TrEMBL record:
Originating organism: Paracoccus angustae
PROSITE patterns given in the database record: CHORISMATE_MUT_2
InterPro entries, sorted: Chorismate_II_sf, Chorismate_mutase-related, CM_dom_sf, CM_II_prokaryot
Protein name: chorismate mutase
Domain called Chorismate mutase: residue spans: 3-94
Catalytic class of the enzyme: isomerase
Keywords, alphabetical: Isomerase
EC number: 5.4.99.5
SUPFAM superfamilies noted in UniProt: Chorismate mutase II (SSF48600)
């Protein structure tokens, strides 16, 4: 189905809700990868925050956003918040707060 083929709000909302569920699933996968990163960082002695990597991840997201016609600054802001949450997650693990 093409987006332009959606003619009523109920169908449109159902598509948005389904997409939101997929996005949450992808975020859960990202969360699991961050948990793994914390374990690897512990083994090799890296800190949770690596500023160069933060900027690389944010820039990558911005570039992907721009290539898809999205507002680069908005996506970079969202990604920066996600990265900060990931760093906090890694910090908790590295400081002994483990599930």
């Amino acid at each position: 189905m093409q987006i332009d083929d959606i003619s009523d709000m109920a169908t449109l909302r159902a598509h948005i809700d389904a997409l939101d569920e997929q996005l949450v699933g992808l975020l859960a996968q990202r969360y699991a990868l961050i948990a793994r990163a914390a374990r690897i960082k512990e083994q090799i002695g890296l800190p949770a925050r690596i500023d160069e990597r933060v900027e690389e991840v944010v820039a990558n997201a911005g570039r992907h956003a721009a290539s898809r016609g999205l507002e680069r600054a908005l996506i970079e802001n969202i990604w920066r918040q996600m990265v900060e949450a990931a760093i906090a997650q890694e910090d908790r693990y590295l400081n002994g707060d483990r599930p």
